[in-house]
Batch of 4 targets.
Target 1
Amino acid sequence: MWRAARRGLKALARDGGVVPSPNIWYFPDVYELENRAQDVDGEIWRVLGEEAPWAGRDVLDVGCGDGFHLPKFAADARTVMGVEPHEPLVRKATNRLDGLANVRVLAGSAQRIPVPDASVDVVHARTAYFFGPGCEPGLREADRILRPGGALVIVDLDATAEPYGRWMRADLPHYDPPAVENFFARKGFRHRRVDTRWRFRTRAELESVLKIEFSPEIAARAIEDVLRVNAFGEDGYTVPVGYRVHVREKPTGLVLPGHSSSSSESISPRML
Ligand SMILES: C[S@@+](CC[C@H](N)C(=O)[O-])C[C@H]1O[C@@H](n2cnc3c(N)ncnc32)[C@H](O)[C@@H]1O
């Protein structure tokens, strides 16, 4: 299953458009456990709050999957939109949000977000689509929908951080972390590394999650590594996982006549 999913991923990524996510597409229940286990200390949320505060603002979570992160944004944001290309996940996210008045889920993709120009303050993407070179169409689309001064914030795994990054690199030998970080730096993003802990209540949960994230061989190695450190598992099983948070604000300069707000060619008043 894992290999077939990887082949499908490559084929569809080649065609452009949607990037299949074998973990959440084929194993949504296990992915739910994974999301619950992630970032138990709230470190990513803390950094997001510092870099792109969302209280009272209009937030859009692109590649929102089954909407796991939407309620957290909705607690303080003015409005929240989840955008997701995979139809079964659009339905799941919609069901999750039943009763939350300020949240909507829309079918769409990072390259085509079904909202007007300059209508959002924070665009958030977590382990979705913005994986490095190749995501330029999504960067342009985020610029189009952001209000001047609004922020695009991309959260992804840090493949340089031990031990999770070592398992990632073993499964993705061609993945080049410095190239990815340089790409975002060239595109004008600042970035922060975030140390988190994933915590699983049981060994069965730990194993099921690592098995949807890695090939059988690497999953077996990862499980062994975790069990060695968490020998007794009395408080559950903890895994250190590093993330990168990349942030870029849309310039607040004036837009030249004849240029749409999606153009990056804005100028500041001082340049007039
Ligand atoms: C690993 S999941 C993460 C889901 C969610 N952000 C979370 O943290 O729970 C990646 C998500 O990106 C979605 N995705 C794939 N291609 C996309 C695209 N072109 N634009 C936006 N989202 C995409 C997948 O369908 C999947 O739901």
Target 2
Amino acid sequence: MAQVTLSEIRKSYGSVNVIHGVDLQINDGEFVVLVGPSGCGKSTLLRMIAGLETITGGTLDIGGRIVNDLDPKDRDIAMVFQSYALYPHMTAATNMGFSLEHRGGSKAEIEERVNWAAGILGLEALLDRYPRQLSGGQRQRVAMGRAIVRNPQVFLFDEPLSNLDAKLRVVMRGEIKSLHQKLKTTTVYVTHDQVEAMTMADRIVVLNRGRVEQIGAPLDLYDRPANRFVAGFIGSPSMNFIEGTITAEGFATAGLTVPLPIKAQSHVGGPAILGIRPEHLRLDPAGIRAEVLLVEPMGAETQVTMLLGNTQVIGVFRERVDLSPDTVINVMPDVAAIHLFDTDGGQRLD
Ligand SMILES: Nc1ncnc2c1ncn2[C@@H]1O[C@H](COP(=O)(O)OP(=O)(O)OP(=O)(O)O)[C@@H](O)[C@H]1O
Ligand SMILES: [Mg+2]
């Protein structure tokens, strides 16, 4: 196991800069998830850690060694890809043992390691099968088996579950998490599924256009996003944003003033954006007038899309609301759960 430290890491392809100086310290045994929109540089960053991509600037330290110029095979890391990348003509066991064989392990040693990994991953009965004889989830497990047999210092995962159906994704998510609890290997995991990020991570790194927006524990990011980008990216459905003005009485918007929980005195008179999560809106006759656009009952809760002034917002209500499109309701933000952002850079205001 090892600590991984990225200092001022940069990447450019020709004249195009895609990673603009990333600083990140991943502790020994930690499970860190990189999230961000498509094209923000998640895979590039992971591939630089793996050694599959050259590093344009900065230093990468794995386990106390600067590894910028080290070959992937000398970095003592194992990577699991979205596509599994199994050899089709080899059985599960051979796929899993291949890298050990490559390093000159003895037959007995390899067999022991493969059996150990198969035991952890529940693959004992499938070792003689070829990839085409395995389901997607089983193939993904073989790909993980291939990573763990080597007992590397660091695991890297690039969207390993995105080819699986929704149900299997949930199962495998739990398996990867419990694998980490057993092995405690330092892990960097890339996904753009923010539920995966929330449930698996010790810490989440939110990336945007090649820069770190925020690093923190999942619930810290959820409860105190540093800026509007993180606020909108973490959480599903996304946080609602309402434009208005901060006055001495509170936040004024769409003909109503919402009291503010925080001292926003220094911003009085200025424009601001109020952020409120869908679950923090409640039906209240004294609330803001909203026109219902869409009602989606989901069993445990009902999701209501509505127009508030000319801003579209979503409310999630635990009670069984009986609403239809075109009706008018009144909603009130839970004052304690309000976030405020400035209108320019979108920075958090408290
Ligand atoms: N070989 C390359 N040459 C030029 N540009 C590249 C190359 N590889 C990646 N890029 C660019 O670098 C940026 C980051 O790409 P990257 O694959 O890291 O994104 P990502 O966050 O993994 O996205 P996704 O969620 O879609 O997988 C993108 O704008 C991409 O177009
Ligand atoms: Mg990617």
Target 3
Amino acid sequence: MSTPTEADVRSALSKVADPEIGKPITDLGMVKSVAIADDGAVDVGIFLTISSCPMQTEISQRVSTAVSDVPGVGAVRVELDVMDDEQRTELRKKLRGDRAEPEIPFAKPGNMTRVYAIASGKGGVGKSSVTVNIATALAERGLSVGVLDADIYGHSVPRMLGSDAKPTQVESMIMPPQNHGVRFISIGQFTDGNTPVTWRGPMLHRALQQFLADVYWGDLDVLLLDLPPGTGDVAISIAQLIPGAEILVVTTPQQAAAEVAERAGAIALQTRQKILGVVENMSWMELPDGSRMEPFGSGGGQLVAERLTKAVGAPVELLGQVPLEQELREGGDAGTPVVLSRPDSASGSALRAIADKLAVRRRGLAGMSLGIDTTRHD
Ligand SMILES: Nc1ncnc2c1ncn2[C@@H]1O[C@H](COP(=O)(O)OP(=O)(O)O)[C@@H](O)[C@H]1O
Ligand SMILES: [Mg+2]
């Protein structure tokens, strides 16, 4: 067999995506050198974005596998180096243009990412569970999905997504970790252990702004925001920062819970945000004999949907009812959302059906000026 050419090897490398940025390493200036010996042995030099890159093993493996697959290639050696400041600046410019000030991509005209803010009147109704399950279900369908844990005080997204990875920083960009195909950022990634966060309104607003502008989200199809419970500062900040965000209201079937959920939804009226729909959680429990028990009563979701329909003067749909089920709680605790761990369970299928309704067509590249391809998900 003939010795492979450098072009063969580079073409194989163009199919290797950086795990954090999600774009080909050849487009990111990460390929330092390619050397091919007469016996087909290949040495590849790779620039990491930062020296402590948590993804270095993953990158080496991806490079090694891709190059080994080229016909005629013998032993593959990957040597890692680190970008210098100038190279990092180039990378930053490539990813987000030459702007001095970071801006929120989701607020720009023509942006294709759908932003869904998950809201509830009170805590403990399953807002975060609904968020991570919809996120992973959408990612499984091939959409590019991000989750911003905006519940600064009650952050639980990293645990539910099963990753305590920390974001890495490349110049002024924060690279979000990814698990189950979902990129996510949470204040929990920036605090020590379980230290409580005691921020006030203006600091919260700045933190959200940073999470939206400084985090390199890539070309998302959907960004889900797990809001703190209630109708507070964060909801208003989001309305200011991303006016196009749509609100998804989560409630339990209880009348009292429905009333507070309705208030959370009504804030959207004041901020002129669109209401995407209502999810009722903990709707019933299936008993061994097949009958249903309703520990939290019934009708809350429908009630909220009807009242919000009246309030906004446009139909607000009850998108689904999720039963109370041990599998869902276990999935959250174990870090594998029930839509993945038990997709056919009652709660898993209910959540997948809701995600199906929210699945949108993948964003096009119209208006994008990155000059590089987005990663393929399919
Ligand atoms: N349908 C359900 N069945 C069983 N447990 C649930 C269900 N929904 C939520 N839980 C559990 O209830 C707790 C609170 O849910 P969570 O999603 O954290 O609520 P919130 O974000 O609204 O505070 C979690 O332990 C979660 O696993
Ligand atoms: Mg929560």
Target 4
Amino acid sequence: MQWLAHGFHGEMQYMATHGTRRARPAELVPGTVSVITARMDYLPRDTPPDWQAVEFDRLARPGEAIVSVYARGRDYHKVLRNRLAKLAERIAEEVGPFGHRAFTDSAPVLEAELASRSGQGWRGKHTLVLDRDAGSMFFLGEIYIDMALPESEPVTAHCGSCSACIDVCPTQAIVAPGRLDARRCISYLTIEHGGPIPEALRPLMANRIYGCDDCQLICPWNKFAKKSALPDFDAREGLTGRTLAELFAWTEDDFLRRTEGSPIRRIGHERWLRNIAVALGNAVRSGESGAREALATRAGHPSELVREHVAWGLAQQAVDPRPSPRP
Ligand code: SF4
Ligand code: SF4
């Protein structure tokens, strides 16, 4: 409630509308007595051991488009919800029919808090749940059930004196340990936020066009992050190692075809172009050849939002190379 009162949720009005139903499962699903929490690792199957360094290196290549690791494969909502449904079916086979409802990243559920209170991990200073054996590169899901189960215990926190995630955040969105101002967070700005991106934050986004992983990449516990056993989260063709100019050239049809079944699709082509226009403007600032020419191709785009971000990009001047956030 305090976090909402500060306005840290930005335009994510759905976070405020459900009131106490978010924090009290039985108010959301009457009859709920226990919550089964689950987590599912999502690093792609071909992730190399030094993957954190590999990802930081992308930031040093201003012409490359960076999509957050979790979004490079299939939409996790479907994958995780199907698996939770299967888990509920198997429980029903053992105990008989029971009332239940599964959630994955659903607006009315405080899933990170449920996960940490049930022992899936502790809340890191970046606010995500992390675990000593799995880091934080996993999705969360819950099944609200009408049966009483023995409670699992929370685990103790192991951030200690580390503050690497706070220090590395390019926009200083982690305003205090465990407190995130979503309005400054690149994940929010590139995915949830619908309008113009605040100009002061644009240069700080560098070449991140969908989400941001920095606070997780820097976390020492992510040395222990696990690869997914599923092919679903393997990176799709076109979403890693591509240039900004290539992705900026996608027509709306290209965008819809290539993001079919991907979480990226829901931002739509207009926000996609807005985000890439910012990244191209930052590539101009880094002196990247071809960035201006790519921007110019969309200078007459029908969307005012896209045109304004393109104009901003074209107005940038080359500046000294930015320091790499890599430690
Ligand atoms: S996702 Fe990026 S911008 Fe958001 S808090 Fe983490 S490091 Fe900062
Ligand atoms: S980077 Fe450090 S402070 Fe941040 S979540 Fe990881 S261990 Fe905790």
